[in-house]
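Input.
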Amino acid sequence: MRGANVRTSVSISFEEAVFGCEKELDLNLREPCTTCGGTGAKPGTSPETCSRCHGSGRILERQQSIFGMMQTETVCPECRGTGKIIREKCPECRGAGYVSRRQKIKVQIPAGIDNGMSVRVRDKGEPGTNGGPRGDLLVEVRVSRHPIFQRNDIDLYSTAAISFTKAALGGKVRIKTIDGDVEYEVKAGTQTDTRIRLKGKGVPSVRNAGRRGDQYVTLVVQTPTRLSREQKAALKKYAETMGEV
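Output.
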């Protein structure tokens, strides 16, 4: 019978989730006992085949019900599903056939993974019974929040402040992306809450390595709070030309 899966978790940064990374986990995993070779029996002795289940580890039980005779398969209570009876147990593992050992397991976190997703590491779970394969190690990924970017699937969202004059006259501004700062040409007359799209500046798709999301940036026009005498005069002159004064 195949062994059970083992679950654990790992915390990574926002950037590590976007670009992928490798993490090393320090875990207690069960391994075959070297004293008995995994049999669970004292050295010099051998396990015996269970006489009740004949080594299968399962038994059939029949029970009469209103629908007739019902038949169910359950774990053998005599050998507890192992199919073997150990008369003299190994002093090291106490008949379990396995001992827990601290191990370092390297886990490859793929680019684009999102919070709550899991990475499967094959054959690092619980050992199987009756010669069955090991289970898997399932690592749940917990992604830290980012102070600038918010994520929705493979797209990123952020805000960028631009000056009043840049919004009015247009020009180049620097915008933060997950890849670093980029220049963007703001159109003259840009209003606050204008949303722009930076194609390909989002998160790689964890299912399709060749695809990457976009970044959507909301531009916020900053109104100056401290003006010099000259600046106030210039703005007043502008207001007069607009008929506002």
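The helical segments are 14-19, 164-169, 229-241.
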